[in-house]
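Protocol step 4 of 6: record predicted structures for both targets in the notebook before any analysis. Target 1:
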Amino acid sequence: MNTATQTSLDGAHVVVFGGSTGIGFATAQAAKALGAEVTLVGRTRARLDAAGSALGGAATAVADMMDRGSVEAVFAGMARVDHLVITAGSLRTGKLADTDPDVLLAALSERIAGPLYAIKAALHLMPPTGSIVLTGGQLSDRPSGNGTSVIAAAVRGVEAFARSLALELQPIRVNVVSPGYVDTPLFDAFGAEGRAAILEQAARALPGGRIGRADELGDAIVFLLRNAYVNAEVLHIDGGGRFV
């Protein structure tokens, strides 16, 4: 009987989708610091090259979560995937009354179909001690009504998806990290002034008076990779935001 409660990352292969920036890059940094071999996956070659260099020459692969072929190609030639982390996902907003439904539904493709493609492609490379971490979000618990209805549905779906997969894929563990407001490039879509206003307002509302940092989310994800008894869990790292 395996009684270990901590899974060593020393020598483990961790594949991070969304690994070129933000939470994904912070996760790769934290995993590498514990001895892991990391592969960064993202949509933009230039960003991947910069991130790979910053990590001392980490492996990189270009893929779009909405393109099944490119996702599957990431795993071609790999011998082993100990841990799969998926933080990729853009912020697609728009109110249903004035937005094309197909545009809104892209959020479901990114956050449900994309991870499904990646998990399916990685499964045959994963040992029984392997784990998967998906990314949900605070909107699952606190929908805003500001054009984020489909994203809210998508991140709630991620939680149900992970819990069911934890049973289906056992003993491989499947968990979700659910971030609140975090200072990452995700908010760049709102422009410099809009980004600053959104994050400042969020910080004022939180009990700690500040938003999160990418490294704090990276540490949380590494905890989910390492703790062998955490399974089918949704870990909220939101500064208490879902309660205010």
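Target 2:
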Amino acid sequence: MALPIPKISEFRWLKLSPPQILVIGFALIIMIGALLLMLPVSHTQGQGISFLDAVFTATSAVCVTGLVVHDTGTFFSVFGQVVIMVLIQIGGLGFMTMATLFALVFRRRISLRERLVLQEAMNQSSMEGIVRLIRSVLIYSLVIEGGAAILLTIRWAFDMPFGRAMFFGLFHAVSMFNNAGFDLFGNYRSLTGYTSDPVVNVVVMFLIVSGGIGFIVMSDLIGYRRGRRLSLHTKVVLTSTAALIGIGALVLFVFEFTNTRTLGSLNFGGKVWGALFQSVTPRTAGANTLDLTGLRQASQFFIIILMFIGASPGSTGGGIKTTTFTIMLGAVIAMLRGRDDIVLFRYRLSQERVFKALTITVLALLLIGTVTMLLSTTEEMPFLDLLFETTSAFATVGLSLGVTPELSGAGKVLIALTMFAGRLGVLTLAYALGPKQGKPLYRYPEGKMIIG
């Protein structure tokens, strides 16, 4: 006899808000994952892992980051790698999305409270069509990951036994679509062995971009043939993503063109692939085809900026999001032109959206600045390297300059907490710690002060 699946609404005595449920849910999954990774069967023979390192690895997987203290390809066994892959899938799609999958399979009704949590998890402004969106998310994810896994398997079957190529194809399809950045090639190499490989570059970049633009945009694009219209959100996401990738590739191509440690040693085609991939991966993917430690400092700092912006809302990626960056940029342009409204694609944005974008940006800067300063006191490493690692953790990117494996215990805790905050979102975490209050019934008189 099948056991009934409990509903979130049956735990009303907990009196938890949707943001608090998300925080607790992610924390529980991380702890379960850490315990599984501590099992002897999760490591290669003769190796063990401390509780802190297990929690760090589980946090990195669930928060789809990719920063690692132990090399995934050599330290963990196949069982451990499968655990990491499952944690990535749950973390990328969201545990509430996975819970909804089981509810749909068992034909259980989704309660109002569960819909509220799904609305918070998917960063939606209303509950309308939320279950339909979740169903689409699951279908899109499985189709894209499955197709990419087949293509990568075929490509890597030329380099390794077919069974191993199948596992590599599946693992990297899940990892890259969820913008996690974990890889199995060993010795922290990531995809540096395929810098000029067109198949690996195209498939992986497609996975990164499709996972990073968000499920709402994918749904809008698929339904475009019916309505011949795209929402403002989709237009902003596609435009900003294309602009960031194009500008990023051009800047990195110019900065690294003569650098023999990166693009300088490649032919023209390799230079183009290398610059383009390194521009795409700060969308919070974490894979790299160039040695990041060999990049010039200007390139490293530029990648920090790209990582800070990150992916788009409702996606598997992190960062302040492309829409937030676009709104902030629009506010600057509107101010310089002496206009009161921010207008994008002939739509005026409400003041609430501008305040939310400003709040997210300021909180993100405060978090990154604070963690970087703390790491500067606990770790004896260059400041730019620590800033790079902290931004990578906050934006759930996973790109690294080799700092993470050398972190002290305190440093690992700081980076793990930063990954956790970055995956949930600074606003969601703030609401979970101190739920937002209702609107006041009165307004204070307007005051004037000098700015600038």
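Step 5 preliminary note on target 2. The first helix runs from residue 18 to 37. The chain is about 60% helix and 0% strand.
Proceed to step 6 after PI sign-off.
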